[in-house]
Structure formats: C-alpha cells, structure tokens
C-alpha cells in the first residue's frame, strides 16, 4: 500500500490521506491522519514484520483543503514535492514540523491493533526530512524500531528548540515505568530514557523553556523534569489536570484523598506552584469543577450548590484574587454541561 505526503515549502502543509480522513490538530505544527484499515480480517492482530509490502497502484485520496489566493497557489505549485511512502502499510500518520525554519519534518506511521488484543509484533516507522519535505528517510533504527504510542504523538519543543519527544508503547504490567526517546538535534539522534512512572498523557513542554516538562502519571502523580526528561520528580499526588500560567507558574487540580470521580462531582482543589514544585499555594479550596488559563486570566468553574449552575470565577493575578464571572458565562457553562476545559 502507498500513502503520499504533499508538502508546501514554508510554513504550510497539505496532507492527502489514502481512503481515510484528516483528523485532530494537536498543535499548529502537528497533524494526524488515519486511513480505514483495508484488511478484511478485523479483530486479528496486525503486525508487519516484513519491511516491504506491495504498493497498491491507484489509491483514492481524500484531501484536506485550504482556501488559497492565486498568489499562494503559484507559490504552492513551485514548492510542492510529493513523496510516495511505498510499502508503508501504516494506518495512522502523524506529521510534525521541528523547530522554526529548520526544514525538518518528522512523520510517524503506526499500525493500530484492536484494543483488546495483546500487542505483539506491532511497529511504527519514523521518517525524517531535512529539506522541507522534498525527501524523507526512514530513521526508525534511531529508536531501535520501537513501537511508539501514536496518541502521545510526535512532540516538538517550543520555538527553535530542535527538541523532540516520542513515547514508547510500554506495557504497564511488568514494567516499572514508561520509556521516552528524546532528541536535542531535531531528530538526527535519539536517546532513550526510562521513566520512573507510566505517563497517562503526552508530555507537555513549557511554552518558552524546552527543558521544563510536565506530565501526569496513570496513578495521578504530577511529574516534573527540569532537564528535558533526564531526571523526573513527583511533586504532587491525586492530580487531575494542569496548565502553565504566566512565567513558570504551574496550576493543577487535584482530589485530596483519592476521591473517586472527584472531577465529575466538582470536588477538586486548585493549587499553584511558582518555583517548579518546591512550594505550593492553594488557590481554590473546594468544589472546583474545572479551570483554564487563557490570555493572562485564570478561569475556574466552581460548584457552589449541588444541582445549580456552576459559577465562574476569574483571576487576573494568578489566583490571588477572584472575581465572579458574568452570568452569561455561568449560563453557558450550565448549557454546555460537563465538558472540562
Ligand atoms: C538501541 O539499542 C542499542 C543496543 O541495545 C543501544 O546501545 C542504544 O542505546 C539504543 N538506542 C536507543 C535510542 O535506545
């Protein structure tokens, strides 16, 4: 089977998936797309020990289209290069730009297996382009052909950091923690790091300093690394979610005593740390439902009376003081229901 990637030189990217669909935009530089599995034997574990399969002659494409001006069309035509990934039978592809203006693009192709199957022989392939997508090379050997968790993606550091993180698909049983592969040279080389925990989500970069990483483990630990993943410290338990605020302020919600479904019932607390996990300030002492940090404002939604609409409180000073949000916000939250921001 064949899939093709169409790259517009510069900062724009068009993807064409084979009989599949474009999906989810993890951030502005990452796109994932998937194709419907074309094998008849559903439920069977898909493995691909062979590196070569037969390329199908005429795939049908579903295009994700952008509206372009005539000038943009001319630029597109002059800078479009097509790469056929012949022989790649992956069902899911994640494409990410690494750094600004480096010309480096990484592509991860993975085969999905049915959820309930014991995964054996699965694989992912990693491709790298250093010329804005004119050519790609299979660099899977750099990560020892390890199977990568596609839902944790291809994480590229902020700005021009050239930092990349991939998360290996490590079974929770029989392993003390997960494994990540880190690169500081835009994917020329990778280092494997044994984590002291199993991540429950993709690792999050600080928006300015690529050395600072945060992630929540499957048992609710809030883990921080200040050296791009080499050393990890658990700074809190029972964590539900977190977000970076201004500077190095980190906000996180947690349930105090491992309460079951505290998030659904709005029984969370909100803390912040302004020194990367050394000291903490409790910002919301009870009944927190959800929170977010946007444009310098900390938004929290709090359940004051059971069954009543949630109340929004907004802070412009990192949670020292709160003002109640307008009623329209309350109404909106009440109408949109239980979605967490
Ligand atoms: C790949 O395996 C070799 C041999 O076991 C090891 O030395 C190397 O560090 C591994 N590379 C990565 C990125 O894990």
Would you mind describing this structure in some detail?
With 341 residues, this protein is mainly β. The protein has a domain at 214-341. 7% of the residues lie in helices and 38% in strands. It contains 3 helices and 25 strands. Mean pLDDT is 79; it is low at 8-26, 37-60, 115-119 and 334-341. Bound molecules: 2-acetamido-2-deoxy-beta-D-glucopyranose. 2-acetamido-2-deoxy-beta-D-glucopyranose binds at residues 143-144, 181, 190-192.
Given as residue ranges, the uncertain stretches (5+ residues, pLDDT < 50) are 8-26, 37-60, 115-119, 334-341
Number of strands: 25
Span between termini: 39 Å
Largest sheet: 7 strands, antiparallel
Shape: globular
Bound molecules: 2-acetamido-2-deoxy-beta-D-glucopyranose
Radius of gyration using CA atoms only: 22 Å
| Mean residue pLDDT | 79
GO biological process, one term: vesicle organization
InterPro entries: Sortilin_N (IPR031778), VPS10-sortilin (IPR050310), WD40/YVTN_repeat-like_dom_sf (IPR015943)
GO cellular component, one term: cytosol
Protein name: Sortilin N-terminal domain-containing protein
How is this fold's topology laid out?
Blueprint: E1 4-8, E2 12-18, E3 20-27, E4 30-35, E5 61-63, H1 70-78, E6 80-84, E7 92-98, E8 104-110, E9 124-129, E10 137-138, E11 154-156, E12 164-167, E13 179-183, E14 191-194, E15 204-205, E16 213-216, E17 222-225, E18 233-236, E19 239-244, E20 250-254, H2 262-265, E21 268-273, E22 281-294, E23 297-302, E24 311-315, E25 323-324, H3 327-336
The structure holds 2-acetamido-2-deoxy-beta-D-glucopyranose.
Residues 143-144, 181, 190-192 line the site of 2-acetamido-2-deoxy-beta-D-glucopyranose.
